[in-house]
Amino acid sequence: MRFSKVIGAVVGVVGAALIATAAPAVADQVDDARVGVSAADIAQPWLEDTATASAPDGEVTVQQTAAGAVKWFSDRRGSTAYEHYCERAVRLAWARSTHHASAIDHWRSSDGARHTTGTPPKGAFVFWNISQWGHVGVADGNGGFWSTGVNGRIGHATSTGYFGSYLGWKPGNSN
């Protein structure tokens, strides 16, 4: 009789633990389904930094290419996860270790030469002065760019004239 009581108690505790851990996931799924929110819409980009990989000594080991930075954006086409985080999006696309507080800070920084004329090469950072924080995207090499804020999400525009107050471009890099 004692043995069955012990087994019953263990099963009860394990079952309660499983139910407790499953309940939040079910509640989240129900809430998301009710309001029609997709996984891309509820991503928390400020918590993920998957485009960079650090070695044990802290050195950044991933170096991105211009094609890879453009692919990062095209793979996320339609996502709203990075709205109002354009500088973070280009940093992740390029797997950069350098952080800037805003796009306008990046433009004004000594981090790369500023160019105000010519077609930005593929992967170049392209900048606009559309708010106190500015805006930045990644050039496609054909006069267009990939960015957040294209129709309210990550998208492609065929001209840097899409946003007003175009500032210019800086070479893209994984610094």
Automatic annotation (TrEMBL):
Signal peptide: 1-27
Superkingdom of source: Bacteria
Keywords annotated in UniProt: Signal
Protein name: CHAP domain-containing protein
